[in-house]
Amino acid sequence: MFFAAGFVCSGCSAEPSPEHDGGDDMSGGFVSSSFVELHSVFSSGMVVQRNAVLPVRGVNGTPGYPIRVVCSWMPDEHYDAMVGEDGTWCAEVPVHDAGGPYEIVVQGRNRVTLTDVMAGDVWLCAGQSNMQMMMTEIENADREILSATESDIRLFNIESRVQSEVPVDNIDAVWQSCNPNTVRKFSAAAYFFGKTLYHELDVPIGLINSSWGNTPCEVWTEREIVYSDEELKADADRLANNGSAQPNKAGYVYNAMVYPFTRFPIAGAIWYQGENNQSTAWRYGKLLSAMIEGWRADWNDDFPFIIAQICPRYRQYDYLTYYSNAVLRDQQRRVAENLDDVYVTVNDDIADLDDSHPKNKQDVGKRLAWTALSEYYGIPEYGDSLCPVVDKVTVSGNRVQVSYKNTGGVPLKTSDGNAPSCFEIAGADKVFYPAEEISIEGESVFASSTEVPSPVYVRAGWSYFKIQNLTNANGLPVSVFSTQDFPDTAEEPDSMQKN
Of residues 445 and 408, which shows the higher confidence score? Predict the structure, then answer.
């Protein structure tokens, strides 16, 4: 079910207002001495979430005076709000089906009119440099930019990246209609996600790009949540003392680049981050899960959350965690496995092993969108466009069966026609050996090793730079996985980048 009607904004008026002394509509003499200034997420050209309740909000008003809101999708209704002691106000306005363009008229001492407002689906697009990566930086950039003419895709691009010790309620950006000029500096992954949704759904799409390169997950998570867990607190304290010029304090980016949207209804969120958490990769799943649950609590909405898995690449540093890239990708998979309405897409096949920033963001965006179309919008034909992930592992004698889901009910295959690669098996001694006899049977892989007569653990794709050849029938790669619950005791041989 993809309606966002469960969103509730506390402290807002949600009913059509009774008449005030000045009259019952804008032209009928409504009188107020309060100046009207809207919250910064409201501007002409915006997209508001369909099938939801929209909290129209303002700041710097005169306490004790009314504000009136009229929206042209409900022209016979008006909604009044009283300015509070802090100068803020909020009126809740129902939004129904997708459509537009509409106007939102807000009346106080002055009148503010927002034009070209569309009702559709709004997605928050967050993360670090792979989400930030602009359209000008991708492969075939000129061609893709020139063809970006979907005017009903609306972009809210936070270019002035900011952080704050405390939550702030405004952001420096405005909504813009997508065209070759406005899309140039926009997130490429987010744009291709929105483009795919738009062409399939034929409804306006709003994309909020809130991304910042070289940022760890801690800075995107509320500080109170991070510091409520002793392990996460210890990691955050080490991070805060690392001397980095980039944001390194828990919650600081959340306060300035996520919090301002928490009372603005959205359809869901996409997330592309992880490279900066590789030293503490075994705890990334706990941290990311806490972040997701915190965001959902702030929105009062268990919206869908789709993770773009980071890519394999040669190791750049001596991380505190061995096999850190594989561990982190598997942690992303586990978060999707353990939390409801959280999903993961896999990007191993588009990796650039010498660069954390693959330039193929077209496929990244499409895979995120295909997942949304299948799992959130419930369009059955996209069921075979999901990236396969492990479903269950069973052991019979010396043979391991790894069963996958998201296969579309069609047998798995390999990209090169050879046996599945990169499978390893370990016994109770926790020493992994390459699987020797490997075969595909339907939606499962069977593997064994003469070195491991009694298998206990199995993993696949456990590497910085080795990429599995196993795919679904449409060629989408399977995710790395491991059943181990312990860290490796040595680093992967030959994994350090050589140039």
Answer: 445
